[in-house]
Amino acid sequence: MKQALLCALLATAALLGCATPTPTVVATPPTGSGDLGVVVERAQGSLQVINTTSRQILGGIAGLGDLSHASVVYGRDGATAYVFGRDGALSKVNLLTHKTDARVQQSGNSIGGAISQDGSLVAAQNYQPGGIKVFDAKTLALVADIPAEYAPGKLSRVVGLADLPGKRFIYSLFDAGEIWIADLSGPGLPKITKFKDVGRQPYDALLTPNGRHYIAGLFGEDGLAMIDLWAPEPKVTRILGGYGRGQEPLPVFKMPHLRGWAVAGRLAYLPAIGRHEVLVVDTENWAEVGRIKVAGQPVFVIARPDGRQVWVNFAVPDYNRVQVIDTQTRQVIKTLEPGKAVLHMEFTPRGEAVWISSRDDNRVSVIATDSFETQTVLSADAPSGIFFSSRANRMGF
Amino acid sequence: MKQALLCALLATAALLGCATPTPTVVATPPTGSGDLGVVVERAQGSLQVINTTSRQILGGIAGLGDLSHASVVYGRDGATAYVFGRDGALSKVNLLTHKTDARVQQSGNSIGGAISQDGSLVAAQNYQPGGIKVFDAKTLALVADIPAEYAPGKLSRVVGLADLPGKRFIYSLFDAGEIWIADLSGPGLPKITKFKDVGRQPYDALLTPNGRHYIAGLFGEDGLAMIDLWAPEPKVTRILGGYGRGQEPLPVFKMPHLRGWAVAGRLAYLPAIGRHEVLVVDTENWAEVGRIKVAGQPVFVIARPDGRQVWVNFAVPDYNRVQVIDTQTRQVIKTLEPGKAVLHMEFTPRGEAVWISSRDDNRVSVIATDSFETQTVLSADAPSGIFFSSRANRMGF
């Protein structure tokens, strides 16, 4: 088996025109994919493959189309990544060969995707035509096309897609005010469970790290829609009614990404839409227990893997800054300025470093989370999302 | 960079005598290490390398010495594993080549090890001579030898070793009743912090998943020793005094493995020593909040990654059974008999399956955690510990 793998690699290497090695040279042993990741170069539609141990760029994968709002999920092996382009293209790329192994133009306008718990199915959430499409993770062959038809002939844009245990996906219908669960575990057609009247215009959602609570933000009204998926009969309840948005509507410069919400221990930290605040919420009763003043309108609010810190970036005009909250004192303990137009932050799996993309400075900064020292700065063309292979191990990503 | 890597692989493949491929054949792309793992074959001192996606054995790594109480930690790449043998040998193996890349006979009697947060240092905890030794993770060159000398000329056996953020390790001194932290972040000698009089005979310990609480079980008295490592000035406090052990001493057929203790949400589930019970403890105040009757003396009590289930195996004579606790109802919902002498259980990273070793039936069972159906049974020689590469991403493992 080992030899078969290496011979397969040999074939690949031969295709690339490597010089024939002298047989007496013992090569460096191959390394795994656990410390690999990609940085999205949104303007030119490419990825940079990076290594978080050597803190280097290993090479690029180009020709992936419009990556202006791209997201990435990982197969179970951690070297296979699925890239969802804004233009509706779904690409399967390999972080070891830097090649695109499969690609399908699956819709006209897509906003991300998810991968099933067992890694066998990849789902894309689409604006145009509204619905989700599910693909075989190996071949990208279409397995199911599930239009979000909420009234005769009316298709809703789909947001907030996440995987649930088993071959299930949960997602929100922006135009319908509904949440659906598609179950693809059976042999026949997908089984759809619909939650209606969840609130107006769910615009994004998150799944808590344990997969228990699905929470959709509502653009059309104050509060959020929550489902306890472990309840014997799950139903939608409203939480955080009047948490700020409706109180005195403020201009919103950029919608927060709910998937970035931080759950640290028993508490969740979430961006207050339009306000310079991070809300602190008790996940046992979903009541607000505090607010933390920050430097701008928060976009991503992400916990370091151990939950001891929460890092926040901001909408324009404060998007050159990143702030760090200590979760024990609930104080901002550090303000960083890693570069212009910070779009995303990704922690290494055990949290010793965070990678931050600064789009308008064309760079990615690697920062130690204990000393806040910048360890490395890498060049990338208009970098946006950063996605490490450790996401393969997590639900709701 | 990509080409350099492949050429290196080509060299390796050439050494193995692969047939020269025809250049027109496009090889199967290489896959990552995210779904790899090892099964310890304790009697013959070997590992079986397995894949959790294909549920297959890929090959073996032999010649690792006495693996009768072996444990394994992973480098950041997920393909490099460090094997701590009972005979004091430390081996660095590669899950892609199935080769041993480095090996050192570092002590006379060892009981496991840990890897630093940044992956640069590997530490072994030793009984003989008592202390820890720290090695360069790349070369296995000795970096620091730290004898556990608690009184002039007296060395303690070391147990309960775990990594802390930064280049730090925490461990317990069985013979001294002390807990030490070794900090190797500075340029000079390791800085040692000592906690004295923690209780008699700490025999094993665990670090909570967030790295905040270190808890040592005490063999010599009732209760456990706990340190809140996030406190401004960490100190030892006693928890769960009189939790059972001292009440009416019972014969203990096998000491529970504390590192297997389950933390699911706010609650921790832990084996009651000598009793047929699992204790439920609130991690906010470390008070006991319940007990669950189980089929025998629990050894490993491990939460499924989402915390919705806790799986338990048992000491002799009940070690053919495995029980599943539902954490919402705190009831045993399933009793399984996967084979004789169940020694270990390991969940896939997203929890859809669990791998269980049955030593005396020479097999490893792969069981779905939703339906409890056995998906695959693999043959292995007297299998004990099972360690998946996803451990690379976790603290305290």
UniProtKB/TrEMBL annotation, chains A, B:
Signal peptide: 1-19
PROSITE patterns named among the record's database cross-references: PROKAR_LIPOPROTEIN
SUPFAM superfamilies xrefs: C-terminal (heme d1) domain of cytochrome cd1-nitrite reductase
Top-level taxon in the UniProt lineage: Bacteria
One Pfam family matching this protein: Cytochrom_D1
Keyword Manganese tagged: no
InterPro entries: Haem_d1_sf, Host-pathogen_enzymatic-act, WD40/YVTN_repeat-like_dom_sf
Keywords, in A-Z order: Signal
This protein's name: Protein nirF
Organism: Roseateles oligotrophus
